[in-house]
User: What shape does this take?
Amino acid sequence: MAGSLSMEKLDRSNYAAWMYKMHQYLLGHDYWSYVNGANDATPEVTHKDLSAWEKAASKVMYHLASSVSDQLIIHIRDAKMPKESWTNLKKVFVAGTMAWKLQLM
Assistant: This one.
């Protein structure tokens, strides 16, 4: 993921735009598989494979954390995997979930 991610940080008003941009960014850098679950199991082949996997997963986690406002970091700070971070944010923002309904109160 060379280069800096330049997009508006996720806040309470821009989830749809943020999600689309982040999805495209991760697809473009071949890291979407760490979010959609296709690459969420650590490899057990060699130390080199594990090291490469951990490095890539850490990059995704860094970009997700860097792209949310400080007020929302609480939703992903304890996540161990990129997929978990993505799912946690989705739960907060997708209409119809309990978290979304509570935010509207």
